[in-house]
Amino acid sequence: MKRLFCMLLTMLTLLSVASAEEWCSIADICEQTPARWTQTYETKWRTITIDAAIEVPQVEAFPILKVRKMPAVDESLLPADADVRYNDPGRFQYYTGDAEYVIKNNTMFKSIDCYPGPELPDVLAEDCSFSPQDALELAHTQLLRLYGLDDSHFRLDETLVYSRIWQYKGKKSNPTYTKAITDEGSYKVQLQQLLHGTPYFACNETGDGYEPGSWLSEARVSVVHRGADGYMVLAMLWQVEEVVYTDVPLLSFADAKPAFEKEIMAGRLRTVDTIALGYAPYTDPDDPDMFWLLPVWYVKGGYTTDPKKEFTPFYDVDGSIADDGIERREIVFEAQQGDLIDYVDSQKNRRRVPTIVTWEVLR
Q1: Tell me: domain 71-236, CATH 3.30.310, correct?
Q2: Which residues make up the CATH 3.30.310 domain(s) of the chain?
Q3: pTM for the full model?
Q4: Which tens digits make up the pLDDT trace of 145-164?
C-alpha cells in the first residue's frame, strides 16, 4: 500500500511538472526545436556566449527500452588469426594481422588528424593504399557478421587519420624524423550505437559513481584499419531486451533550457559543446543486469563548481594552444521528470527507474 501511494504521489508530481509546460511528441520536438542554441548571458563574473547545435533524433517514436549488455561473441565467427583481448558481456576486442603496434622510445606518429562525423573526410593517410571509406565498410562488415547489426544501428562519430609511425631524434616537442617504421598510415573510425535511432549517454562522468561498471560508460565501436589485413575491433554495445512503451510524451528543449540557464547564471556552466536528446540508463529494481533507457536532454561543456575560477589554456612551444584548459562535464535534464540529474545525491536508489509518464495516463 505504501509503495502504491508513493507511485501515485510521484505520478501526480510529474503531471504537475507539466502543468505549466506542454508535453510533446517526438514529432513535435523535431518540428519545434531550433537548430542551435545561440544566446549571450551576463553573469556576475563574466559574459557567457552559447552557440551550439541542438541534436534531435529524427525518429517517429520515442520508446522506453529495457536493455542488457551485448552477450559475448561466438568466437567461431572470428578469423583464424584473431587475437582476442576481451570477450565479455558488453565489451569485445580483438586484433588481426599487424593492427597492433606499440609506440616505443623515439617513435611517434607525425600527425593524427581528427574529423568529426557524420561525414567521412576526403583525405588519405600517409602512403595509404586504402581510404576512410574502406575503413568504414570494414567496420560495418564486422558488425553485421558478429552481431547481425546493419549500418542503421550506428552513426559515424569521428574519423582519425594517422600518419605512418616514424623514428625520430631530438626532443619529442621538436623532433627530427629519421626513418619510417610502418609502411603506411592508418585510420580509426568510431561509431556510436543508436537504439531505435537514438544515441545513448551514460550520464555519470561528473562524479555520480553509481556502481562503476554496472552500465556501459558508452555504447560505441572503434575500428582501426592498418595494412591490408590488419585491423582492430573494440565494441561496447547494448542489446535491446524489451520495448516497454512504444512511445512516450517528452518535455521539450524549451522546458529544459531554464535548468541549463540556471547553471550558467550561477557561474558554473561556461561553454556548451554538445546538446542532444538521447537515452540515459536507469537500474531495474529486480534485475541487476537489466537497465532501462529513458529520455534526457544532454549537455556537455565547460563546467566548474567554483564560479570565480578561470580556465587557463596551455600553450605549445611554438605559441599555439595545445589545450584550451577547459574542464568539461555533463549536465543532464530528465525529459520526463523535469529536473537535472543530481550527481551529489548519495542515496542508494538514486538511479533506479522512476515512474514513467505515458500517453495513456495523460489521456
Answers
A1: yes
A2: 71-236
A3: 0.89
A4: 999 999 999 999 999 999 99
